[in-house]
Amino acid sequence: MKIEWDNKNNKIIIKDIKNFNVGKTLECGQAFNFEKLEEDYYKLTAFKRVLFLRQDKDKVEMFPTTEEDFNNIWLEYFDLNTDYDAIYNKFIKDDVLKPLVEYGEGIRILKQEKWECLISFIISQNNRIPQIKKCINYFAENYGDQIENGYAFPTPEQLATKSIEQLQESKVGFRAKYINDCTLKVVNKELLLEEIGSLPREDVAKELLKIKGVGVKVANCVLLFAYAKADAFPVDVWIKRAMEVLYFDGKEQKLEDIQNFAEEKFGEYSGIVQQYIFYYARENELGKK
DNA sequence: GCCCAGGGAATCG
DNA sequence: CGATTCCATGGG
Fold first, then answer.
1. Distance, CA of A17 to CA of A141 (rounded, Å)
2. Is the CB of residue A70 inside 7 Å of nucleic acid strand B?
């Protein structure tokens, strides 16, 4: 990986990058804060910034940004210091996973903002991805600050000014009361989202599960996508059906049993394997009736 | 009209 | 306890 700076145009150019596909990384279901503008051209909003990304094979351009922002934010956000080649080569040897890993080559696990990720996955429950994205977009445009080229996701303090009825204007439906409960816990400092990041996975999970509307699945998504707990294996309806087809001869299993089976089998890389499976299953309707 | 969606809480038996 | 029902909303 080679990084070049185009200071005149506020642009970062990454060359010779392996195992990084911008489109797959954003569209594999882990994040909802982006918009596809053209093929291999995306608009992302995070950390109160809008970032445009354009990819041509093993070259990725990000703009507008500074060297400082790239080093302090985007390098970690896109997990660019992790060697995905090693992970890819490990699971490509597994006959069951091979086609899924090949299909998902280039997916990276983002390190998202904790607050936004938590609210996003509360909204995700019993919902569809396009609808989730609409809600997140509504939140930013109506409750957040205007920023260069777009709108930032609202802060806890900004969301706290909205009533449950007002939140429902975003079409989050019955989840509005859950979002309200979560927001109050954060602004009242009952829940210290940043501080708990240094705790072991089980302790972070325990804190997250205190929020109404957060169960095991949502907690695992937040652990994986925001707290960088890469050994977490969230089990949703797609993962459940796919895992039953791949490893249990199509026979129905309990959610808990699937999670335990996967985390034991895939270990410290459970999260990325989960994302390969989720992306393949959804794009190819694996296990769908 | 019926079914389901990156589930979870409330209620029932 | 485990199993069932309800929850808003929108698209197929």
1. 34
2. no
